[in-house]
Amino acid sequence: MRAAQKTRARFASGAAARACRVAGVVLAAVFMVLVLAPGCGRTGAYDLLEGSGGSGTGCGDSICGSGEDCASCFSDCGLCAGCGNDSCDGAETCGSCSIDCGQCQSCGNGACDSGETCGSCVQDCGQCASCGDAVCGAGETCASCPVDCGLCASCGDGSCAANENCFSCPIDCGQCDTCENGFCAPPEDCLSCAADCGVCETCNDGVCSPATENCFNCPGDCGTCTGCGDGICGSVESCASCKQDCGVCSFCGNDICEEFESCSNCNADCGECNPLGCLEVVTCALDCIDLQQDPPDFSVGCVANCIAAGCADVQFFVDQMLDCAIQQLGECGGDPDCILAECDSELAACIGANCD
Fold it and tell me: What is the pTM of this model?
């Protein structure tokens, strides 16, 4: 009786009372994850990035300067007449009109070579200075700046066309090698690498906008791509487009405490753990559980991280309490009051356990 009185007194606060009332519902779930290691796994901020480069001095600075023209620097001077008609005509080249003629063979070698500009080879020369201003300028195209101009019409047809690349159309060409390293670095943006840069601002508004959104860069609006959910992370799947197969976009060591990261599995990003007491562990676990669902829906990784935040003594007393509760589930039929009455002494010991 004295133990029961002590228990009721210690649970007088609102948070403690809530923990008691739902303890019977979640005990089994928490017990299942006591021995599981914490999940590892990310979200990054949306960041429009700029780059520069080109064959002529100043090319890519948004100014059509002396010595520049549509042939030598269309990113500054605009496209030459006929460029963009889907036909690589006469004077057009891969350098002056990549949207019609495709990328030059040297594009993608890591060096912004002579003849390449930010308008014709984003991979090597970076994005032009004006890219990301929400205006599709005279020298911008769907191939060089889809974040302003929208995706090219062929993007999403399953074939990586000559004028497409990993930056302009990752759904067809696959992500660039630098994507999914935890850092949103030029020329990555929300369309080319949602895994590092986060989804674009319009994503998750409930409307799939075909001009800039598809199942790869915005599954929240457009649904998942074909093959997502088959258990295999394919070449054109990512943590941003298909968590079910590829896991979450969380990278330990990028100074961001991301989804499923915690002090227990990534203190480099989330800081050192402050050991929790038994009641704090239980309350933490409750926050991982949606009691509005029947049966309750919960995150195993979240609950595991809560358990891992307790010191050895706390984990022992949590385990002792849950052992008792599990044994009483059949007799009590999941009734929290019944379970608490049967496991009164174990619960009292758990409440008194702290990491001092």
Answer: 0.60
